[in-house]
Write a structure and sequence with these properties.
It holds the Pfam family Epimerase_2. This is UDP-N-acetylglucosamine 2-epimerase (non-hydrolyzing). Its EC number is 5.1.3.14. Keywords: Isomerase. The protein is an alpha/beta fold and about 375 residues long. The protein is about 45% helix and about 15% strand. The strands form two sheets. A seven-stranded parallel beta sheet has the order 3-2-1-4-5-6-7, with helices on both faces. Strands 10-9-8-11-12-13 form a six-stranded parallel beta sheet, with helices on both faces. It has two domains: about 190 residues, Glycogen Phosphorylase B (Rossmann fold), CATH 3.40.50.2000; about 160 residues, Rossmann fold, CATH 3.40.50.2000.
Length: about 375
């Protein structure tokens, strides 16, 4: 039986790798070993519980006020010890976190093949998003098997010199997870977790947290959203506030006096899926929400300067607003004025069909010689 070490540390990574773990359990070919660094302790644990995944190793590396260098050092040391003990046939990492890069580098140093899920995303700006753009680019350098979510991600890898034989286009596993989650909450309505009541009107859902937006950009984002809400009092807002003290303090300063704004603690995964499902608009700097919104047919205002997911912009669901106050308000107003019919009639979901995890498992089987046929690349609707 083939031993696969799956490494992740954040909530988004757990959401996106959980379907792969579950799919591996269904086959008789794999023995999946899960190692978590717990970059996001509480948020990570909640997702693992939803998908009934118990880590075999929990490095629990987080400490108060530690730097990116601290995280890298602790993750690299801890994952090296796990790899040396388990001696897996292949190590699987996901995305673009510090855990991703550390896991890939530890595997490379131990001469273990690396499989990278969600490979090939590029903003082409080294510091946006920070540090994710560099993390995923460096991870690609030591990766042996690249699972690209889209054909554009594949093209990025080809342009960087990666052999097409080492790339498989699978769709994004976040859609696999979202479909499972939607079934779990199919007959569940508001209230959502920490929100003890149901909004009586349409609401805007906001989720912002990215490191490059801390400080002045976050203030501009909040002020732009506030301007929109003040001029549109019929729309309320649900804002699960990131635990970062800087974000919490600023959110109270900017939104504390607005009656329609609900500042709440971070929602669990299933609660957040329900909140996305029922929202009128979503304001975010998240990566995964860009993908989920396309499946849910929701307008997203992306409060960043660039996106590594231009497919969502082309599909009509993602609106890149920048991080200036006026531009943010303008982008929200434009999305808000779109009719419901014009949104739901967009028939282009570029990010997946819910079977990416099956393609990934088939790709591993091919790579390790369990099967002789390389899986076909996923082509999105209209692709």
């Amino acid at each position: 039986m083939v031993k696969i070490l799956l490494v992740f540390g954040t909530r988004p990574e757990a959401i996106k790798l959980a379907p792969v773990v579950l799919k591996m359990r269904e086959t008789g070919d794999f023995f999946p070993v899960v190692a978590v660094t717990a970059q996001h302790r509480e948020l990570l644990d909640q997702v693992l519980e939803v998908f009934n995944i118990k880590p075999d190793y929990d490095l629990d590396i987080m400490e108060v006020n530690q730097t990116l260098s601290d995280i890298t050092i602790r993750a690299l040391r801890g994952l090296t010890q796990v790899i040396e003990r388990e001696n897996p046939d292949i190590v699987m990492v996901h995305g673009d976190t510090t855990t991703t890069f550390s896991g890939a580098l530890a595997s490379f140093y131990n001469r273990i093949p690396v499989a990278h899920v969600e490979a090939g995303l590029r903003s082409n700006y080294r510091r946006e998003p920070f540090p994710e753009e560099v993390n995923r680019t460096l991870t690609s350098v030591v990766t042996d098997l690249h699972f690209a979510p889209t054909m554009l991600a594949r093209q990025n890898l080809l342009q960087e010199g990666v052999s097409d034989n080492n790339i498989m286009v699978t769709g994004n596993t976040v859609i696999d997870a979202l479909i499972k989650a939607l079934k779990m909450v199919e007959n569940q309505d508001c209230p959502y977790g920490k929100l003890s009541f149901c909004p009586e009107s349409d609401y805007l859902l906001m989720e912002v947290h990215r490191r490059e937006n801390w400080g002045a950009p976050m203030r501009e984002i909040f002020l732009g959203v506030r301007d929109f809400l003040v001029s549109n009092p019929d729309l309320s807002m649900i804002f699960p506030v990131h635990p970062n003290p800087l974000i919490k303090e600023l959110s109270l300063e900017i939104f504390g006096d607005l009656p329609g704004v609900n500042l709440i603690s971070p929602l669990g995964y299933l609660d957040f899926v329900r909140a996305m499902r029922d929202a009128r608009l979503i304001v975010t700097d998240s990566g995964g929400i860009q993908e989920e919104s396309s499946y849910l047919k929701k307008q997203v205002i992306l409060v960043r300067r660039v996106t590594e997911r231009p497919e969502g912009v082309e599909s009509g669901f993602i609106n890149v607003s920048g991080v200036e106050r006026k531009g943010i308000r303008k982008s929200i107003e434009k999305a808000y004025k779109m009719s419901y019919d014009s949104i739901v009639n967009i028939n282009n979901n570029p990010f997946g069909d819910g079977t990416a995890s099956s393609r990934i498992v088939a790709g591993i089987q091919w790579f390790l010689g369990i099967s002789s046929e390389k899986p076909q690349n996923y082509l999105a609707e209209g692709g």
